[in-house]
Amino acid sequence: MSEQRTAAIGATVVVCLVLLSALVGPAMVSARPANQIPVETVSSADQPQEPTSAAWDTVPAVSVPMASAPSGLPNASDTSVESVRVQSARTDERLYIRMSWADGDADRNTTGPREFADAAAVQVPVNTSARPPISMGSDRNLVNVWYWQAGGETEELLAGGPGTTTKFEANAVETTTNYDDGRWTIVMSREIQSTAENRTSFDGDNDVDVAFAVWNGSHMERSGRKAVSEWYHFPFGPGPQGPPYESILWTIAGLAIVGVALVTIQAVRKN
Questions:
Q1: Which is more confident, 270 or 210?
Q2: 3-state class of 243 per DSSP?
Q3: Torsion 16-17-20-25 (CA) sign
Q4: What residue spans define the domains of the chain?
Q5: Which stretch of DSSP H or E encloses residue 123?
Q6: Is the N end or the C end of the chain the one with fewer CB atoms within 10 Å?
């Protein structure tokens, strides 16, 4: 085989690898660590508190799988919400969490003994440097729970294990909702900084764990009969994210391309 033909084959291999990297590289860069909820910076002027605000159009969304919570209640394993679409954004002052899920009926009125309201909750640890038990924390690692019920107000709760919830004297969580075309969309927000005792602060140097729960009232879901998620986290810590992380990925991809090309060219020359 002539040297010109060998060089031509080698060049072709390199071009193919470069084209492949162009396709695979962006996917590598955009990949997120498992169970991460990205937090996008937005302007308060865009009204992120409103569920239908255009501010949410550019905020990454995560489809969070839901499963029935462990419970001794009758039919506790029979829950209806299979996933929740979660987005998170922040301004200089507030953290916003947007949850959206399918529900064929908006259960707001609970006048009868067998009627239950739709509801949702967000759970975050008080101590952001340690992950508490997901079932309402423990007496050594407390959690904050933001609990919204359709037709009612949002409650800000403190818990140290199942059955230990107490209300904060003053609720700092704001919730706005929208129900349209068989789908609930709610936005819960709170100030990022907090000096109140046992209230989670989001201005530290740690990632912040977060979990979600949803109740479908018309499906007889209430109390411990609910759909829940695993722990996810907000990337507030100094983990691998942003431009430095992207540069490392591209460097590794580039080295791999060069290495494969050299090996291929050498093999062609030998033959």
A1: 210
A2: helix
A3: negative
A4: 3-30+244-270, 39-238
A5: strand 119-125
A6: C
